[in-house]
Amino acid sequence: MISLADQFLVLVLLINFISLGTSRLIFSIRAVAVQGVILGILPGLLHPFSWHLVAITIVIIAVKGFVIPLLLGRAVRSAEIKREVEPFLGYVPTLLLGALFTALSFGFAGSLPMLPVHQNYMFVPASIATLMTGFLVLTTRRKAISQVIGYLVMENGIFIFGLLLAEAMPVMVEAGALLDLLVGTFVMGIVINQISREFSSLDTSLLTSLKEE
Amino acid sequence: MFFYAALIILPLIGAAATWLIPFDRMRPKVLSLFACGHMAITVRMLVITPPESPGGWFHLDALGKIVLLSTSLLFLACAIYSIGYLNYRRERSNRMLCVGLLICLAAASLVTITHHLGLMWVALETTTISMAPLIYFNRNARSIEATWKYLLICSVGVALALIGLYFLAYATIVAKVEPSLLLDDLMRYAGKLSSGWVHAAVVFLLVGFGTKVGLAPLHTWKPDAYGEAPGLVGALLSGGLVNLAFLALLRVYQLSLATNEIVFYQNALIVMGLISMIIAAIFMARQTDFKRMLAYSSVEHVGIMAVALGLGGKAIFGALFHILANGLSKGVLFLSSGNIHRSYNSKNTDHVRGALRRLPWSGGLFLAGFIAITGSPPFAPFISEFTIISSAFTQGRMLIGAIFLISLTIIFIGMALTVLPMVMGDVPADSETTSYRDSLLTVGPPLVLLLLVFVLGVWIPAPLMDLLNEATALLEVRQ
User: Fold this and answer.
1) What is the mean predicted confidence (pLDDT) over B199-223?
2) Residue B479: inside a domain, yes or no?
3) Which of B118, B196, B200 lies nearest to residue A169, judging by beta carbons?
4) Which residue of A has its CA nearest to B161?
């Protein structure tokens, strides 16, 4: 089953590149939703059946695949924006950087000791590559929504690493992480609404009144 | 166990109560009541320390005690201040503010009492999120920008810290010891943990918690958030939340000591600390917004604490004492600056002149707070800063000591150039007149904080001295 997990991780990496390369926000939100659903399926491939596992799978797919994308989609529609225009760094350079980071994370992961069961699989590189992709999206895009998407991709990267720890981490921390994600997005959603009301746009580069001369 | 639970649950009950109360005038009073209750529990726990909870998740050690004490004191002062202050802010509901403050207090207490790094992370993230609506209290374009930067940068920081924690947990799995994120377990198994994973973990934890502390170059959210938040929120951010995140850095320090990462960690702290001080020195000069000036002062002081940690030895005592000294002094500065802001309806130093004449109490407190925070005797920050500098020179680290001293001097001059014209001279003729007048409730709390800063500067009570020594011992390099 674990080799099937590897196939899914390849999909996750491909979705990273979609989120780096697309300018259509709705498309990007959907891609991240698909990524969330894949992440929801992954624990089921790694661990034997239990009701606890079923519950976790359902919660993750519901939150990452539906609730958060719906919240973001609503923000996009209410702000009436469709595309990310003029990112701070163009699409081709960010894609290249994304590829570079992905390669580097494979190198980094190779140098660290792993459990024999996890050896030869790509949880660690996929996790770090996804984290870095999220960070790239977050820092190179202008629109508030794109930045939130970047943050979600980052959290997805962290989640992949969390899979290696499913037995070690108490449920409480697991739940806490998910709750933080939800609350964080919720609060960011509210802030996004306020930005669009105050500036009639969701362009965070307009947020420049607080600057040192 | 009872007291551990009470410390968290009491503020949460308070949050529910303030949520339900329909009257704006009543809420700050209830807030103060719960702050008093929290202070009482804190004192009880400091005097008779409850034993560690079964399983070791909750354990109030000396480091936690120092941060808990400074947070509870500052919160009480801010709560009482809010009764007077919110009277002048009746144009909008204070429900969100009071509820947010109490949730933040509950999460902050949790950070200080837990030894489980995962739980500590959740609590720290909760403090970040609960403060966001408070920074947005003024509901204008500038405060939304500040809130956005704060939320985004701090969330990224905390996310990086989480992956650091995951690395640690995985290190315990690879080492085939009992998987755990309990600080005590990690330190016990330190010798067996793979150094590659621990090293990567320390890097991510430093960057993550460093963002929340506001160490340069991860400080960029600070001037905006502190500048736009109401004075009492600024006080809690710079005197409370900073210390909580610093406690997280102290936990990483304990861990590095046990795992031989300490040399790397100390060097990184010194570099980031000195950069923070230099950046503060550069941006402090010619700052025309006095709240932003205070924000850079906060960047400076987390820099001081980081350098002190990095130096080790005697400087550790300075760093720990500075938690109290800086927290309380920042309370004085932010609360009195809030009063000045209310009175002039401006935080631009072009408009704010002659504060001593217009508001003798608030102006005087602001001036005294400035003298205290820049490390002049007889106030508490002098003791900590002096300890740190002398430690740098006795260790023979001349370059660090020199950069430290030069930065402090430049910051003193830069801050004086902003503060002195503000408080001295005449009130401009065209200055806006507002309804704000100094009163017991708005002047009393910062005055009490200033007295504490003064007393700690001339005399450290024996129990506090014991506590500081005990905490220092936790951070000493063992040969």
Assistant:
1) 91
2) no
3) B118
4) A158
